Records
---
Amino acid sequence: MEKQELQSREISVYVDGCSLGNPGPGGYGVLIKKGGKEIVLKGGEAETTNNRMELMAVIKALSYFKNKSKIVVYGDSEYVIKGATEWLPLWKKKGFKTSEGKPVKNQDLWKELERWLNFHEVRFIKVPAHSGHPENERVDQIAKAEARKWKRNS
């Protein structure tokens, strides 16, 4: 990812992830709003966790943009938001170990997310889960549908 000129307009991204059982089949949903257009990204895995799917949603959203961009990520996962904004710098200093000296869970995804956070200019906004926020409800439904699809196929 080479340095490029920053796109001036902010892009709104809504993300959610879930698993049926934890672990179990899971899915993620992404809604991108850019220039009056909506783009939906979705996917899942046969055996995963809620936290992995929440992280995948953000990674898929950020990796969609190949040009350096200003992105506002709206999500309901405290794990992802605090992880990205508070814990990640501490984990890096400690060699991806927790304060108890244990390896950080989902290190592979945290390291991939970090690369995208360093490439784009990203802000996170916490949206209360299941609060009637239209875009959050929509990505929640997309994530659940993906998880159900993986459950049927496994």
---
Amino acid sequence: MRTSFNIPDGLIEEFDRAWRDEGIENRSRAVREAMLEFVESHSRLEETTGEVVALVGFDYRHHEVIRELHGAQHEYQDVILNTSHTHQGEWCLESLFCRGDAERVRELTYRLRDFDAVRRVKVMLIRDGDE
């Protein structure tokens, strides 16, 4: 299936450099691998039940979203154990160390992704409900 995407020039240049450095044969293959990795990561988060320990990391533009982010963090304080914050140029990088019900951590993750000023959200399940 052919499809097209609107991708900023800088991002596509960086992506092309990365897949070539990895020795991947072409951009289509690299996109398929990246999509598969995303689907696998999303599926694990969706399928996990019970108590989890997780690290949720995200970056954002501070001045555009800080009040809303603080509100979300207070709303999910039942699963957020600790936070860490650092500055990377005009962006802020935040990590949330979480423990609690997988559904609550999932809700928190999706809530963070809803903010336009949040560039990306990554979740690392350290211990899932099956362990």
---
Amino acid sequence: MATLKQYFDTDFNRILSVNQPFKYGASQETSVEVICRIHLDFDAAVFYISYYVPDFGRTKDLCLKLINDLSWADKIIKETIVHRGSIGDEPITSTDLNFSGRVFIYSETELSSTERDSIKVTAKNLKRTVDFRSQSYASFRSNLERPLAFISHDTRDKDEIARPLAVRLTTMMCPVWYDEFSLKPGTSLRQSIETGLKECKKCVLILTPNFLANTGWTKTEFNSIFTREILERKDVVVPIWNNVTVQEVYEYSPSLADTVAIHWSKGLDEVARLLYNSITK
């Protein structure tokens, strides 16, 4: 399941944005770092604002402060001037954009309906509109978004390959089934994995020496994927090779060695781009 922070990072990613972290609080011990983001929509000639607020004891008071004081936004827009314009159009700069009044608050603290209503009244008096997005929002949205790809990997390859790739695809609006995002406490591990393997459009195999040597879950996942390909009679597997040879892959699975692969040596950005094209086509 995607986290609230991941939604904050990926929402509106087609709009040019400028980030600025700010510390709020009376002292270092009681302060919290809020990520403030300006979204510059040149097509609509407006800008709007989003905040990411970590879990904080005085979230309501902090939200009221964030709604009231937008001087930081004016300062950033003046200091970060961006020029945009298509051929034949009159150029427009970020300083020409008007504030739409829209403010999105991603709060790790779940505010009560009374607290949200109070903040919305204050915002309305300032001619602003507030949208709250919290843990319940992230959970509800994640349940609605069907993953497009299942990422099968060895646990030892999480830090170097699997996690960065899962995060990057998510930021590209390509939801994935990845254990750290998708497994929920108390649910059946086997059932959750089997559901992901059956429902995802593609299954990404991160083939490394660790993966090929793993006779546990990764082998079970591969067997399930292979069976699905036979039953559905279509290509499901998208392999990524890292530090493995054709002979090693062939010894693991002859048919897998014949499947066109993406090489991790191309780098995260290029691998993610190629995967995205394969998954969404």
